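WARN retry 2 of 3 for item q-0093 after timeout on previous attempt; input resubmitted unchanged.
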Amino acid sequence: MQLGAVLVCDAGPLLLRHGGIDVERLRTYTGVRIASVSRARERRSSLPFGALPFFVADERFELDYHVRHASLPRPGDERALKRLVARIVSEPLDPARPLWQLWVVEGLEGPRFALIAICDGALAEPGSRGDLVAALLARESPEDAAPSGGWLARAGAELYQRSASALWPSAWAARAADLASGAADLAESLLGGRDALAPAAGSLHRVDWLALDAGDVSAVRARLGGSERDVALAALSGGLRRLFEHRGVETRALRALTPICVGDGVSAPRLRLPVTQPDARARLVELRSESDRLACGMAEPSDAPLRELARLANAARSGRRAELVAAALPELAPAGALLGARVRAFVPVLPPLPGQLLGVTVARSGDHVFVGLAAGAARVPDLSALADGTASAFDELRRTVTEGPGRSAKARRARPRQRRQPRARAEPEAR
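OK item q-0093 returned
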C-alpha cells in the first residue's frame, strides 16, 4: 500500500540567487532527519516457505536515490504540479530498496517549492518509529537528530529477532485470519450480498485537490453542525452528482468507508453519500445525522500525519466493500516549517484501494481545509471535473448558509436590495 503527501512551502531562506531552490541543503537535512525514522534505511525481506516479510538494513543505501529533484515547466501552475504528483504516485517503489522517496519540486509560481513524499504503508505503521513528514517538520534542531553511525550494526543484530517473530505462531494466525477474511469477501460478492466492483485497470492514477476556506467551513458547521469531514463529504456528494449528470448516467448513492480512531484501535464505518439529494443543505444534514449515528468524528490530533494515514488506510482495507474511502486527518502543526520555509499547504494522497473508485482525504492546514482526490485514470479520467464540481457544490452550500433559506438565487438577482435614500434638504428661499 503506497501513501503520499504534498507540501507546498514558501522558498524563504532556501531561495537561491538565480531563483532556484537549495536542493543540496534539503538533501543533507533529510539525511540527518531520517535518523528518527526506523525503516528509512531498511529494505523489505522475507524468509522461505512464504513466511511474513520483515525489514533488514540496506547495505547499499543511497540518499541521492531517495531524495530527488524535479522542476515544473513554466508557468509552474498548480495543474502542472498535480500532473507530476499523479505520475510519481503511479510509479511503484522499488522493493529492493527502502520504500520511500522525497521529491523536491521547484518552478512553482511565486517564490515557492513543493515536497512530494511517497512511502509504503509499512514505513508509517504504528509499530515503526518515526514518520517521514513529521521528521522533516520536527521542531528540535537538526543536530539533536544526528545519526550515531551504528544503525547498520544495530539493524544486523536485530535480524535474528525479527526472523523469529516472523515465524511465531501468532504471525501465522494473523495471516490465516487475513486469508479467511478475503475468502469471505469473495464468497459474499459471488453470492450477490455485495456489489462486486471490477478492479481498476492499470496502475496509472490521477490526483487532484481543492482548498476550502477554513472560515467558510466553520461558518457552515456553526449553522448546520457536523465535522469538517462531513462538510467536505457533502460537497463531494454534490460534485459526484454533477459528474454523473455530465456523463449522462443515472445518479445513485455511493458508499464510503470513513476510518476513524477509537482509543488505541481504528474502525472503518461505512457511510452512505447522499449523491441523489439535489439540495445542498439536505446533503449535509443527512451526512451529519448518519455520522452521529455511527459516532464518526475527526481523527484525534497526531504529530505523525503519514503514520495516521497508514492506520486509517489499513482499517479501510480490512473493512467492508465500498466505492470509495474518505480519511480525515488531524491538522498539521501550525508551527510546521522546513529549514525556515513556511508550509502553506498539506495535502495527503491516498490512492484508491483495490476495487474502489476514489481515495479521498480531508486535512486542515493553516487557513484552508484541503480535500485530496485520487483515482485510477481508467475509471475516473475526468477527475478534474469532479474537483470543479465539488468546489461548486461547496460554494452552493456556503451561500445557502450565509444568505439563508428563502428565495432562490435567481429571485435575489431579480430583486436587488433597495437602499433607503436620504431625505433631500429644502433649498433656502432666495431673498
